[in-house]
Amino acid sequence: MSTTRIPVEAIKGRGSATQLAHRFSRDERDAWDDGWDTLADLQADRPAQIRTQIHFEDAKSVISRNDSPDIPFDASINPYRGCEHGCIYCFARPTHSYLNFSPGLDFETQLIAKRNIADVLRQELARPGYRPSHIAIGTATDCYQPIERELRLTRSVIEVLGEARHPFGLVTKSSAVERDLDLIAPLAQKRLAAVYITITTLDARLARILEPRAAAPHRRLQTIRALVDAGVPVGVSVAPQIPFITEDMEQVLEAAREAGARSAFYTVVRLPWEVAPLFREWLDLHYPQRAARVMARIQEMRGGRDYDADFATRMKGSGLWSELIRRRFETATRRFGLNRERTVSTLEHFRPPGVGGQTHLF
User: Fold this and answer.
1) Nearest residue to 9 via CA among 45, 48, 41, 36
2) Cα(66)–Cα(75) distance, integer angstroms
């Protein structure tokens, strides 16, 4: 893919500022001033807003398996590829490279929807050799990003899991999850459902540039209250922790606990592949005075590199700064009474769903 890059400039409602070439691109072109106002013309031709485009995919399978020792689940479902929330730190951005899309703006604007996800999921759950285990929904890209309002793919997944009485948990930054409380709440009563709301910061200004199309922090707290009032077990994710950027972990945990959350977890920022240059661009654009300090601390947690994929350290990092974050988190969770009880799902109610219109006789 040939890509032309122009000077970094914030785009309203988008996290990335450039159409960064992916790692499989054959060439990359940088714009330069040839004395004939070339750069000015490029900037003038660039749209102030970039529209989101949806591409539909017929998936062959929808349940992904992993055996990573640092991940607390081995099965997951992601209805979408790419994410309109535009979180600049998203570790899933490099997956767009396999589709010949840019991990930059394309990841936020060229979205893939698995339109047959419910049918394929029903078939997979109905296979004779299927063995149920807890399924995590939205682990790579948000299952309640804005296009879910119309496409309702996540809702269709929950309907199938509910039909099969299959346990699941989902993680989101969106208040749109409240729409599906009619499905989630009854399943939660049977210990089949739990929801985790990500609140990276309570700073509304920071959230607007860090996660430009996600719900505002105060709205996510309202979502926690709504879920708790409906009887749904709720946890809060304060991920990722970014040195000198997300500095209010304790305040987030306290506010989430007051809203009704009972558990919490965190990770430190991960910058694999193309995420590293995108994040550096973001720092240069929004925090130029502290960019060097931020990257120095990130590298300190990653053995001197932007990223280290070692299973032992990739989620929490290593070194002094990583230890400081860990102690802050553990101290805060003890103080606010989080993680005292574990939400345990049950597999005993599982029953294979009907396929092709068939229903259970007994």
Assistant:
1) 48
2) 7
Instruction: List the structure tokens of 219.
Output: 């709205």
Rounded distance, CA 213 to CA 313, Å? 30
Is 228 in contact with 260 (CB distance < 8 Å)?
A: yes
Residue with tokens 């009880």: 341
**Tens-digit pLDDT profile for residues 68-113:** 998 989 999 999 999 999 999 999 999 999 999 999 999 999 999 9
Q: Where are the alpha helices (DSSP H) in the chain?
A: 38-45, 105-109, 117-126, 148-151, 153-164, 181-189, 204-210, 217-229, 249-259, 275-286, 291-301, 320-336
Whole-number Å distance between alpha carbons of 339 and 263: 4
What pLDDT shows up at residue 360? 47
Q: Tell the residue number behind the tokens 């990359």, with chain if given.
A: 28
Asked if 343 and 263 touch (Cβ cutoff 8 Å), the reply is yes
Domain boundaries, the chain: 2-42+49-336
Q: Is the dihedral of CA 307, 311, 314, 320 positive or negative?
A: negative
Handedness of CA 92, 96, 97, 101 (dihedral sign): negative
Classify the C-alpha dihedral 65-191-158-178 as positive or negative: negative
Q: What angle do CA 140, 145, 150 make, to 5 degrees?
A: 130
Burial label for 60, CB within 10 Å (0-12, 13-18, 19+), is exposed
**Distance (Å, whole) CA 133 – CA 166:** 8
Q: What is the dihedral of CA 208, 280, 95, 130, to 10 degrees?
A: -70
| CA–CA distance, 332 with 229 (Å, rounded to integer) | 24
CATH number corresponding to 2-42+49-336? 3.20.20.70
Both tokens assigned to 23: 């790692």
Distance CA 21, CA 97 (A): 9
pLDDT tens digits for range 325-357:
999 999 999 999 999 988 778 899 999 998 654
Sheet order of strands, 53-57 included: 53-57, 110-114, 80-81
User: What is the β-pairing status of strands 110-114 and 80-81?
Assistant: antiparallel
Contact criterion met (CB below 8 Å) for 173 and 215: yes
Tell me how far apart the alpha carbons of residues 226 and 186 are, in angstroms, rounded to a whole number: 14
Q: Could you tell me whether strands 193-198 and 168-172 are parallel, antiparallel, or unpaired per DSSP bridges? A: parallel
